[in-house]
Specification:
The structure is a single chain. By secondary structure, the protein is an alpha/beta fold. The protein has a single domain, classed as TIM Barrel, CATH 3.20.20.70. The protein is 39% helix and 20% strand. The chain is built from twelve helices and 13 strands. The chain has helices at 34-47, 59-62, 81-87, 92-105, 116-123, 140-149, 162-172, 197-204, 220-227, 254-271, 283-289, 295-302; strands at residues 6-9, 12-15, 21-27, 51-56, 71-74, 77-80, 108-113, 130-132, 153-156, 177-182, 210-214, 232-238, 252-253. The strands form three sheets. Strands 3-4-7-8-9-10-11-12 form an eight-stranded parallel β-barrel, surrounded by six helices. The longest helix has 18 residues, at 254-271. It is globular and about 80 Å long.
């Protein structure tokens, strides 16, 4: 029987006593290429991930007006920042292709939407889950729009104090919500990861699945997050950390992701159920090494 700290995503359960739900964040690491995105989906499947995540923005709404005309070096040469942001966004036809590809490959996909029009865009594809990015946690209108959809939500908590987390949860309610501890620096230094927040959030919100969205270099902190009780894990995936893009350095390449997933599965097995018992594999050593099988009988007759 599952405890109440569980929500359903498609045909999967996420929460206590469930397998850790592992998300490969593609984000913007595709650099505007559907073919690269497909290779990342293949890489996530090869690594054993449960889901892939994209991002969706309406550039005119998300880029401050005073930054539109600033020239940037991009994979397409020098462009104004607004034109660059437009090239990084997939069109409806491109998203159709990506969603179909995920369906063919039988992997869950979802997206973080950074504005209300982006939600409308993604909702046409009927995802089973949405993410609210750390940057959007304080956007009350966006939270309310998400709540109106009545779909499961993953809320990331980087660059945020506890009072804002409390306010966001008050807006969204506690039904179909999962919280991800995160620190929003790319890459994040180990001494700013603050993984004990996983336990803090578990204690504060006993009915919500609590997970971890990591941006560190390396894998060990993510494994530690699982040991601390994270029900789901999100890490950025890349084909090559040397690729162009601001998130690549905080991302995990495919072979590293496979190692990450395999070791998470080992950690799940190793954590056990917390009930002390003698295993059958211990019995030969018990017979060989122990003079008295049980202290409880000695205690009962001697005192």
């Amino acid at each position: 029987m599952f405890q109440k700290r569980v929500i359903q995503i498609g045909d999967r359960l996420i929460g206590d006593k469930c397998p850790v739900f592992i998300i490969a964040e593609i984000g913007l690491n595709h650099n505007g290429s559907v073919n690269i995105a497909k290779k990342m989906i293949d890489g996530a499947i090869f690594a054993g991930c449960d889901a892939v995540k994209f991002q969706k923005r309406t550039p005119e709404l998300c880029v401050p007006r005073d930054q539109w005309d600033i020239e940037r070096d991009t994979p397409w040469g020098k462009l104004s920042y607004i034109e660059y942001r437009k090239k990084m966004e997939f069109t409806k036809d491109e998203f159709d292709e990506i969603v179909d590809y995920c369906s063919q490959k039988n992997i869950i996909w979802f997206a973080s939407c950074w504005d209300e029009l982006a939600i409308d865009f993604i909702e046409e594809f009927d995802p089973v889950l949405y993410k609210i990015a750390s940057a959007s946690l304080t956007d009350a209108e966006l939270l309310i729009k998400h709540k109106s959809l009545n779909k499961p939500l993953m809320l990331s908590t980087g660059m945020t104090e506890m009072e804002d987390i409390e306010a966001a949860v008050d807006i969204l309610g506690r039904h179909n919500i999962m919280l991800a501890h995160s620190t929003s620096s790319y890459p994040c230094k180990n001494d700013e990861l603050n993984l004990n927040m996983i336990q803090t959030l578990r204690e504060k919100y006993p009915s919500l699945p609590i997970g971890y969205s990591g941006h560190e270099v390396g894998l060990a902190p993510t494994w530690a997050a699982v040991a601390l009780g994270a029900s789901f894990i999100e890490r950025h995936i890349t084909l090559d950390r040397a690729m162009w893009g601001t998130d690549q350095a905080a991302s995990v390449e495919v072979i590293g992701f496979m190692r990450l997933v395999n070791n998470i599965r080992d950690i799940e097995k190793a954590l056990g159920n917390g009930i002390k018992q003698v295993y059958e594999s211990e019995l030969p050593q018990m017979k060989k090494l122990r003079r008295i099988n049980s202290l409880k009988n000695v205690y009962a007759t001697s005192y």
